[in-house]
Design a protein that fits this description.
The structure is a homotrimer. Chain A has helices at residues 16-29, 56-68, 90-97, 113-120, 136-150, 168-179, 196-204, 215-221, 238-246, 286-291, 293-306, and strands spanning 46-51, 72-76, 103-108, 125-130, 157-161, 183-187, 208-211, 224-227, 263-265. By secondary structure, chain A is of the alpha/beta class. A five-stranded parallel sheet of chain A has the order 7-6-5-8-9, sandwiched between helices. A four-stranded parallel sheet of chain A has the order 2-1-3-4, with helices on both faces. In chain A, helix 1 packs across helix 11 (293-306) and helix 5 (136-150) crosses helix 11. Chains A and B meet through strand 2 and helix 3 of A and helix 2 and helix 10 of B.
């Protein structure tokens, strides 16, 4: 059915075919995501970025994507400069914004906000993070990074490391990888284990899921080591946070036993989870992952607005 | 004489002919204010938006207007990120900004700021709100909304409801409607009645003005019900505010006796003045009114910068 | 060797030939820096403005420059809306940003930040101010203003007045003028004199430097009077600040004995250093200086991104 005119609130809104279309289109966008390349694929289209919670990298990579295709952006970068201060409902704000530009990228602190906004808007809404909820374009970037490295997602062995309880990116990624037949190996502090209902959902989509006994062993067999950030704000007690955060830190020694082809990913920003020395290693894929935000979002915006990509 | 190169500080700066030109141009802009329509009418022009007080909807609809015509924008969205913090005068700031882009849209907390800025600038200045002062492009949008609905302004019966004392939009709109020969019916809490000098001015321009005895009766005869927001910050005492604010609230029951063709308008954001159930009614015109901000501002910018519109 | 692909961190990164190339290109940009002039020289290029400290005029004039050449901008205007709040290092932030757009204009409160960012970025970085450090594009604008007025820099007699200790613009300008064979006359309160190491550096580049005995006498002989702002924040004691700040104030009486061709410059914002009455004098060049920010930055961006300018 294609993505044209649809909302993108959760990665589960997309079929395997939808995702494959985005991945194909992202590859076609790669040569267009460079300086001096003039492309007019989205000329005449205006994207509204409504960030009621700041998120610099997400905002800038959406904007860059739109601009690289000849489109234009209007932006609320900061909740403080918005009418929500005057007490306006998200419904009214979204409905009004949908009368201006041609699609809305929404970032909001409250879970469920994107779904609510999509109901108010008569233009497509892309969820760019709503509280502990979804952030589906991040998942598409994660998949594109693996696909670029390995040419496929099926059969990849992916270690998910870190906060698997609260980390929304981990849940969405696990779902998508499950759909594509990747093998998931979970490694988290006990207090941050994958919630039971997410695990049940993964079983339902037929995902192969196992728990890592030992991180070293899991890394030895893995194609992808996906590290997530442990959020300080999830812990009442700072000592508890320090204990958990210190329990895993990826450096070159940890990676010594890995396969040559292993890639290390991270949605960034990182705190101490990955040592800077890893940046120079051939395993490091997290900055490439960040850079792929532009071509993947070029593909997504192009498909959602025009039904075509390149 | 046309609008090219002129400032727009108050709606009174515009003659009836000027306003008619904007309304005609706005209608021509309607088919251009949609996604994927490439227009280069303002290619090569740069608009500076200097918002020393946040106003998301005004800023974004001006920006969208400029971008839809192939123009470009540079924006101060937030007073906190501006040099005024360093103690620079508005005169100096405006004079410097007028050396960059080709026109300035100014929003400022202080009444009279726009007139002062226009004196400092050698490029056109558009007042997008200065304290309790003017906001003329809002009035043009209000007129365009009525004109779209009825094909004329002359002879329309318009009920102005709410804060007619402090509400700057109401004063500007009353003036413009008076000039076009509409009939004004005023309905406000006694403490928020139209100031005597505004009333005298309306007499001078030959406006037909009366007071609503009963809101129900006034609505029954009206073509337009224009609701304004009662601003909490105008009341020292919150109980006083609650009493006044609660004294009028438009819902479907209130609108039951209205003519079929009645439209309900509101400059938004609304608080409790219009019940959400009205959104689904054929009377609701306030979201359409907001959306018309883009084509009306396209017309205005085009006429002010190039002297032409489409 | 040309500027293409190089960083611009300090004015000392540029040879005399580099600066002459920017000045020539700036003159070619002048007729393109006007409304309605369509230029596509930077079409397809995206500039990232990362302002971790607000600076409205610098940001807006870079943005205007980019847009006037058909380029596009993505902007962090305000540190509050950035990921640095989450504790990310400048290295990581810059590295990620360099994966999006094609060059980075960085403003940062910490001295040395721009050099650090340039090491992290694989795209050109322009330093738009880092603490008490450099701001080289301001110096290029200063030179362009003098060059426009006199057709040359060699042999000009330039009085530098004000804070010559902390003012970064004064140090960079003194270096560049020295390289071009201008004659420098220094006038500052004793507590704000030019640091000894800057003076030694000026000797090394062969600059002619002297101290003004009397400001009146220095102005009488000068071609350029360059006034800098005395920053209140440099003084612990407000009375000390008031005493020093009051010790020089340029008004028409002070300028009465000057040569006809003297120009008064100031990097702005000014506080009380130049009386408003001077604005109307033929000596006043500070608003022209501000306006030249756009064509000079058009030249700089064009040369750095494409190696060509017009």
């Amino acid at each position: 059915m294609g993505l044209k005119g649809r909302d993108l609130i959760s990665i589960r809104d997309l079929s395997r075919e939808d995702i494959e279309e985005v991945l194909r289109a992202s590859r076609r966008m790669l040569p267009l995501a460079v300086g001096g390349k003039v492309n007019r694929g989205l000329a005449g289209w205006v994207l509204t970025l409504a960030f009621f919670e700041p998120s610099t990298r997400t905002r800038l990579s959406f904007e860059t994507a739109m601009l690289r295709l000849g489109g234009a952006c209007v932006t609320i970068a900061d909740p403080a400069s918005s009418s929500t201060k005057k007490g306006e409902s998200l419904h009214d704000t979204t409905r009004i914004l949908s009368g201006y530009g041609d699609a809305i990228v929404l970032r909001h602190p409250n879970e469920g906000a994107a779904r609510l906004a999509a109901m108010a808007s008569d233009k497509p809404v892309i969820n760019a993070g709503d509280g502990a909820g979804q952030h589906p374009s991040q998942t598409l970037i994660d998949l594109a990074t693996m696909h670029e490295a390995f040419g496929t997602l099926t059969g990849l062995k992916v270690v998910l490391l870190g906060d698997l309880k609260f980390g929304r990116t981990a849940h969405s990624l696990a779902h998508a990888l499950g759909v594509f037949g990747a093998e998931l190996v979970l490694s988290s502090p006990p207090s941050l284990a994958l919630p039971e209902e997410v695990r049940e959902h993964l079983d339902q989509v037929g995902a192969k899921v196992s728990d890592a006994d030992q991180l070293h062993q899991a890394i030895r067999d893995a194609d992808v080591l996906y590290v997530t950030r442990i959020q300080r704000e999830r812990f009442g007690d700072d000592r508890e946070y320090q204990k958990v955060a210190g329990s895993y830190r990826i450096d070159n020694a940890v990676l010594a036993g890995a396969k040559d082809r292993l890639i290390v990913m991270h949605p960034l920003p990182r705190m101490g989870e990955i040592a800077p020395e890893v940046d120079g290693s051939p395993h490091a894929a997290y900055f490439r992952q960040a850079a792929l935000g532009v071509p993947v979002r070029m593909a997504l915006l192009s498909l959602m607005l025009t039904g075509k990509a390149g």
